[in-house]
Amino acid sequence: METSQPGEDFAPQEEPAVSQVHISLDLAEGARVRVTVESLTNSSDKLNPAARVVIESQGDSEQHLVILPSSLSTADASESRARPAGVWLAARWQALAKRWVYSLDTTLFGVVLILYLATHLIGLSSFPIYFFGDEAIQTVAAADLIHNHLLDEERTLLPTYFKNGSFYNLSVSVYLQVLPYLAFGKSVFVTRATSVLLSALAAVAVSLILRDIYKLPYWWAGAALLSIAPAWFLHSRTAFETVLFVAFYAVFLYTYLLYRYRSTNYLTYAILSAALAFYSYSPGQLVVVLSGLLLLLSDARYHWQNRKEVQYGLALVLILAIPYLRFSLSHPAAPLDHLRKLGSYWVQPLPLSEKWAHYWSEYFYGLSPAYWYLPNERDLPRHLMKGYGNLLGATFPFAAFGFFLAIKELRSPANRAILIALFVAPVSSALVQIGITRSLSFIIPATILTMLGISKIFSWLEGKRWPRLALSLGLFAILTTVNLGMLRDALVNGPTWYQDYGLGGMQYGARQVFAEVEDYVARSPETKLLLSPDWANGTDVLARFFLPDPLPIELRSIDGHIFQRLPLDDDTLFVMTPEDYQTALESGKFTDIRVERTLPYPNGEPGFYFVRLRYVENIDTILEAEREKRRVLQSSVVIIDGQPVQVRYPLLDMGEVSNMFDGNRDTLGRTLEANPTVIELTFPKPRTIKGVAIIIGSAEVEIRALAYPTPDSPPFEAMQVLKGTVDQPEVALDFKQAILAQKLRLEIRDLHQTEPAHIHIWEIYLR
User: Minimal CA–CA distance to 396: which of 477, 475, 450, 340?
Assistant: First the structure.
């Protein structure tokens, strides 16, 4: 026990010295201690009675700040008004502290949560500077669900998953946006704020794991430390569903550890939170399942001891899996299609050994400190904070120390659980390519390990007689400063960190351009407004988010008017990107080009042009000459069944003609404008053909096949109208007999498009 005097008082003859009493006790689990602190009366001062405070608590570590009450006579109180202001303020502080019933740790935790919400809600609509289609779709899908009486586009009641583009990867995030939409409508701030509030669950879960499981005296700092992880700071200010997954996954870890350390009753809550995480984000499904299996093995003895409760838990798991089973039965190919569209190497024709080598390379990169703690160029700029790692670099030594401590005490169930969470974080992302959105759950165990390292160092400092109060306040000051500094950096400098604001970069401008478009429509309802869709993904979804249904505008670029003559008059207003505007200027097909308004990018350069224009007088002659030139078929050689084959095809604007014959269902060739598309194959020697199969996606086409026994002989013909779907994109056309042919001509016409049109062909198989 140590008693220290703070120094001279302003009036030592009247004010008693203030003492600080520091007591450190190491107690066995379950031990109980009572500490009584008394302020003894001064024999020379009969006006001050004895003051007595009793602290009674149970637990491994508790901290209490006690202000002993002082008793002043009326005369003393009157005289104190004449004392210096500092003494009066000290008295007021003592009075306030006396009435404050919360411990310092709890108080700091409350302040940290306020800090977390403040740094995430301030300027929420302005940073990140983009508002993504992947954010807008959450509220748009929620609105559609309400308007369609809880049915999706396939007439499924309360669907398990909602479609985002061509992916079925939205679920819980849509349902959580229903009430905010009903209360506030479609709003960037509300959509993101819903995500922010739910992200706070992760901050709370991290701190409570540190308090209730690890019994750390600095547990409150976990939430503040999570807040300054740059990847979390950025993404938790968006409405991306990965944020919900991480939040629910953190709650799952906390409730599982409560089940492991406190009561088996928490198993139900652990399973429920795991289910919410599972349904929140499709790449998180493997993380949740693998975490559950490894925890089942890690604590197998404990589970066996409580096998009755575990049996009930397994029954609950089966019940919660029913929505997923329902979806899987109606969309059996969805997971594999998702991997194909993401370009995963697992669906490419590669040797299995090469696939596994690629996987482990990606997996270990997803665990590497270089990826997490240093600035990287692997992630897209819109997922990065310039100059920062995904985790704050200065915290790495503490994280490494915490990792060492966890490995050293691997017998601890808590340490095993946190390490499992750490090592499973990249398993889904490695199936495609390590990226921060798919690996974001790594931040939760990394934050916990960092706090283990910090707390161990602070415990050592306490052993060197550093006051815990000073350490707590110092840590709080540092974390608060970094949080506020990061917020300022993001709001002030963030808009110009990366200055590619187009489709391949930040995809900036949704709020700004749609606000201006809406204003134009209100002021000039007779104007036909054409907005370029080429500056962001999902501009159709963004339009539905910001504008009323039906849309008062068309999403169309200037390209349509460049390749063919379309209606164009003074009531037509184009909203162009800088690239579109430059294309229009250089095409030589327009005159009287008038820029009515520009919207700038954050760096001051023009971002959107509001333009009116007219065709040149000889536009028909120009277009016809270009059309004739484009109709000339191109020539190349492709490999079919190991043989070189001469191929003639129309101009393509995406992919190569070889993609149509490479056996890879994920590569394609897309025509620039030809409809019908003509593909002519000339074989080195005649071969037997019974029919063809073509992967065309979700299109309805008329396919005409002409098989020539010799290049100059009359052909055998087959023709049929066929329709592909998302689930069955492959269609087949058969001849009535096997034909020995040296030349094959395919004509593929999209029935729902006129020329010019893009025809997508992923693969052509000869049967």
Answer: 450
